[in-house]
Write a structure and sequence with these properties.
With 300 residues, this protein is of the alpha+beta class. The strands form four sheets. Strands 8, 9, 12, 13, 14, 15 and 16 form a seven-stranded antiparallel sheet that branches. The chain has a five-stranded antiparallel sheet with strand order 1-2-3-7-6. The longest helix has 24 residues. The radius of gyration is 19 Å and the shape is globular.
Length: 300
């Protein structure tokens, strides 16, 4: 992807006729039978609500980052093509709108578990640690502080909820839900990817505090990495130069949006308000900075 230098028109929803479509919080998913077309829109969600204001180019930025990681990681994945002309005539009619934000992928049986890997103590993990000195059943040393690096990365699965927050579960419960062999395979694969990605990010001045992976199985039983990979929407990225143990570092995601909503007077129970333009542009810039830092070679 050539980096967008100025915001383009926001795409809140794609419109492709005569193809079954399911709309998630951010992605539109078109069903072609044994394949899917994933369209990353510019929608943004916060506090379990999809906001009425989109972030220009967000879908293209996150797609470009996912494509970078799939190439870098070299693990089995579901991607078939990013050329909209390969998707069929219905999609080719929307080439300009969909190019750069769409992927043709193999349809899999999605494993109903979010495979979360944490290298640092933050978010719900920090809250759980304060109460139990463990995260998802994984016991941790006493005396750890907020945002502290863990002795080694830990695998902390969660349920996949259709609405609301995913729920943290223990590895034993994951085994009960999907079987011991598959659970162990996904734990090992997820930890290996996290370690490889974390090392790359550190070389680029970014801490990969935690992330979540999704996996699917083909009818043959082959396991594929699916969905978005290591983006600011699925990961907690921190700038190394602003990292300090004991406080929550700024992150390369929608923190500007969350912060503004917290002070806007919105009650989080009714439809959210429109975002002001400065929050939109700051958020877009933060996503672009993550893409630039992670994918552009120093000196290029």
């Amino acid at each position: 992807m050539s980096e967008p230098n100025s915001p383009s028109r926001v795409l809140l929803a794609s419109q492709v006729s005569n193809v079954p479509c399911r709309r998630g919080k951010v992605r539109d998913v078109y069903d072609l039978g044994d394949r899917l077309v994933l369209v990353a829109t510019d929608r943004i969600s916060a506090f379990d609500w999809v906001l009425p204001t989109g972030i220009p180019d967000k879908g293209r930025i996150l797609t470009a980052l996912t494509l970078f990681w799939l190439d870098f990681l070299q693990v089995p994945h579901h991607l078939l093509s990013t050329d909209v002309r390969d998707f069929g005539p219905a999609f080719a009619d929307h080439l300009h709108e969909l190019q750069g934000r769409s992927c043709l992928v193999k349809k899999t049986q999605v494993v109903p578990i979010e495979c979360v890997v944490r290298g640092y103590l933050a978010g719900s993990g920090w809250k759980e640690y304060q109460a139990t000195q463990s995260v998802c059943g994984v016991s941790l040393p006493a005396g750890l502080r907020q945002a502290e690096r863990l002795p080694e990365p830990i695998f902390t699965p969660a349920t996949k909820e259709e609405s609301g927050h995913d729920l943290n579960i223990s590895f034993a419960e994951m085994q009960d839900r999907i079987g011991a062999s598959l659970a162990e395979e996904l734990r090992q694969r997820s930890l290996a990817i996290y370690c490889k990605a974390s090392e790359h990010a550190e070389h680029r001045g970014i801490i990969l505090a935690d992330t979540k992976f999704e996996w699917g199985q083909l009818p043959s039983g082959e396991i594929l990495l699916i969905d978005e990979v290591l983006t600011p929407d699925s990961s907690r990225f921190w700038p190394i130069d602003q990292y300090q143990v004991g406080s929550n570092p700024p992150s390369f995601d929608k923190q500007f949006v969350r912060d503004w909503l917290e002070t806007s007077g919105w009650d989080k129970n009714s439809p959210p308000p429109e975002l002001p333009q400065d929050v939109v542009l700051k958020t877009r810039a933060k996503y672009l900075e993550a893409l630039d830092r992670l994918t552009v070679s120093p000196g290029s």
